[in-house]
Write a structure and sequence with these properties.
heterodimer; A: mainly alpha; 2 domains; B: mainly alpha; two-stranded antiparallel ribbon; 2 strands; 75% helix; globular
């Protein structure tokens, strides 16, 4: 049986809209605002119904232009690896600091995407991040938190 | 107006701002040239950097990026038959065949001159039209604004959805839902935060833009890197041929450019339409207007066929600034990103912008023209070198895009939660993109969400809860009827296509 993914997405959106609508009804407004023509939950309630309406239509109406994706041509493995690296990057950036984590993130990403020109990989990670940090922190005066560089005395 | 123009010129012509236009055009060209990366990604990547500048300078930089990206998109259309942006798809119809005939340099030069001319004409139209429209829009009231936003969202859904109107409308609703997270602007009641303190202030606009464009664009490129349908035949990047345009070709361009710039500008002004529709319409119009001999040449390397969409897409870019600057309502996804950045600067665009912040209003208009000149000076002699950027390996490009996206969020909040949220939204957006759910309607809706709720609130409170405000004023009714017309026309078109 062929499962139309667009319909599945529409069904998920329908469920999401129903949940959104339920949550919208749960919003606690001030007592004096409860019967006002417009309060904090009015607009979200309309949005919830709109979501149900459009996704419902998409579910019911025939879909003549079914999109078929050749999953075997898609690079799921590398994409997932890169997402995991990005999550690790996000988790460590505050504790370790911008310079080290960003440089390792770039170096690791180049590696996992299949790059093996080590010198270029190095140049486009550590010195590149240092130059970018100088641009942000030194020239544009945008604060960058970096406990590691602070610890070794490079940053004030 | 003369005073305003002088203020704009004095702001735009400062050394810093000229430098910003140059940098913007240069980086915009590079980013726009890379297939898959368009002006929205280019501007999104620039937002964190612009926060270090004053609003006028920041916007000038972004305007430069916008024009550069549109021009860059034509380069990849001509050389690779892989349009960097949808607005340059029509460029490839005649640009790529011309490049295959060994005239890539000439094709790029025609594109550059046509873009310049289109941009110049539309900057002049904008100069005269924007202040007049600002005065007219002062008479707009909350119901009119609300109706106008509905029109903008419906139009962008209709025009950007490639026949998938319902999918686009779902994205509109999703964008509005995301915008409703956080404190209610009037009562300060928190909504959809699920007791998470990080969501109290709502989801950052930059986060949503980065996630849905820059980051999901990068993930899509990796995901599809082995897709044989995505691979394009490549014209030699080292032998582009002469960039000289002969007298006969110039003659053809003299006729094409003025009419294509008018149609491009007018389409650009319409909410939701934009460079893509403008370029296709100009291409179609040009094909009908040329003589039979030239008509035969269309699709095989016609000068008119290349010049028309290039003129129109650049003219449409300037046109799309009109609703943003005068009404505070962006007409396209790209100007929605710029509107979000403006709000980030604490500047509220709208009819009063040119009175309250004339230096911003006029300097953007003036810098557009300066941007055009710089784009031409920069790009014509550099075409052979810039074209080589197309050979940048994706192994380096993708991590760098991810790096810029994450850094953009990190410097704004120093918060892990925002990074996780961005990755989450990017993953969902990548999946949705695979199934042709368009992202521009989501961004436009996200930007307009707060304003829309505010105007609906005012309208409903003034009419004591009655929906009569929708047909009380002729203007509101006209705008709503236009919306209904767009929906009916779209349904009819889809129905006709299917049957």
């Amino acid at each position: 049986m062929n499962i139309n993914t667009t319909k599945i997405i529409s069904l998920l959106f329908f469920i999401f809209s129903a949940f959104y609508l339920y949550t919208a009804y749960q919003i606690q407004v001030f007592a004096f605002d409860e019967n006002a023509p417009f309060n904090a939950k009015t607009f979200p309630i309309y949005l919830g119904y709109a979501g149900l309406f459009f996704s419902g239509l998409k579910l019911i109406l025939p879909d003549p232009e079914t999109i078929r994706i050749e999953h075997k041509n898609l690079e799921y493995k590398k994409t997932v690896i890169l997402i995991i690296i990005a999550i690790i990057y996000g988790a460590t950036i505050l504790k370790v600091g911008y310079f080290l984590t960003t440089s390792f993130f770039l170096f690791g990403s180049y590696y996992f995407l299949g790059e093996r020109r080590w010198l270029l990989m190095f140049l486009l990670s550590f010195p590149f991040v240092a130059a970018f940090m100088y641009l942000l922190h030194g020239v544009l005066d945008i604060y960058l938190r970096d406990p590691f560089l602070k610890f070794i005395g490079v940053m004030g | 107006m003369i005073e305003g123009i002088l203020i704009g010129l004095s702001t735009a012509l400062t050394l810093q701002n000229i430098l910003m236009v140059m940098i913007g055009c240069f980086f915009g060209t590079i980013i726009g040239m890379l297939p898959g990366l368009g002006p929205m990604t280019a501007i999104a990547l620039m937002i964190p950097i612009t926060y270090g500048f004053d609003p006028a300078t920041g916007l000038i930089l972004m305007a430069g990026v916008y024009y550069g990206a549109v021009f860059g998109g034509s380069t990849s259309s001509i050389l690779l038959n892989a349009p960097g942006v949808p607005g340059t798809v029509a460029t490839s119809f005649d640009g790529y065949p011309m490049a295959q005939q060994g005239k890539a340099g000439k094709a790029l030069a025609i594109a550059a001159w046509s873009s310049f001319a289109g941009g110049t004409f539309s900057a002049i139209y904008l100069l005269f039209l924007a202040p007049s429209l600002s005065k007219v829009s002062l008479s707009f009231r909350s119901p009119d604004y609300f109706a106008l936003m509905i029109l903008g969202l419906t139009a962008i859904a209709a025009f950007s959805s490639k026949g998938q109107f319902l999918k686009a409308m779902m994205m509109v609703v999703l964008g509005l839902m995301l915008a409703s997270v956080g404190q209610d602007s009037l009562s300060d009641i928190t909504r959809f935060t699920f007791d998470n303190m990080n969501l109290t202030d709502g989801i950052s606009f930059v986060l949503v833009v980065m996630a849905t464009f820059a980051m999901s664009e990068a993930l899509t490129i990796i995901l599809k890197r082995n897709d044989p349908t995505a691979a394009a035949k490549q014209v030699s990047l080292t032998e582009l041929g002469s960039i000289k345009i002969n007298k006969e070709d110039r003659k053809k361009m003299y006729k094409t450019i003025p009419r294509s710039s008018v149609i491009g500008f007018l389409i650009g002004v319409l909410p939701g339409a934009g460079a893509t529709i403008a370029s296709f319409l100009a291409y179609g119009m040009e094909r009908n207007l040329v003589n039979d001999d030239e008509k035969q040449n269309f699709g095989k390397g016609s000068v008119n066929g290349l010049s028309a969409p290039e003129t129109a897409n650049n003219a449409a870019c300037s046109g799309s600034f009109v609703p943003m600057l005068t009404l505070g309502i962006p007409g396209s996804g790209t100007t929605a990103v710029m509107l979000g950045a403006l709000l980030g600067f604490g500047v509220q665009p709208g009819p009063r912008l040119y009175m309250t912040n004339p230096e911003i209003f006029w300097s953007i208009i003036m810098s557009m023209y300066i941007g055009m000149v710089i784009l031409l000076i920069l790009n014509l002699p550099l075409i052979p070198y810039i074209a080589r950027i197309l050979a940048v390996p994706k192994n380096y490009l993708i991590p760098l895009i991810l790096f810029f996206s994450i850094t953009g969020i990190y410097v704004m909040s120093f918060n892990n939660f925002d990074i996780y949220l961005m990755i989450g939204i990017a993953v969902v957006a990548t999946f949705l993109r695979l199934y042709d759910f368009p992202m521009p309607p989501l961004i436009l809706a996200f930007v307009l969400g707060g304003l829309m709720e505010e105007n609906l609130r005012r309208s409903l409170l003034l009419s004591n809860g009655s929906w009569e405000f929708l047909w009380d004023r002729t203007l509101t009714l006209c705008i709503l009827l236009t919306t209904v017309f767009i929906v009916i026309w779209h349904i009819y078109k889809t129905f006709k296509k299917n049957s």
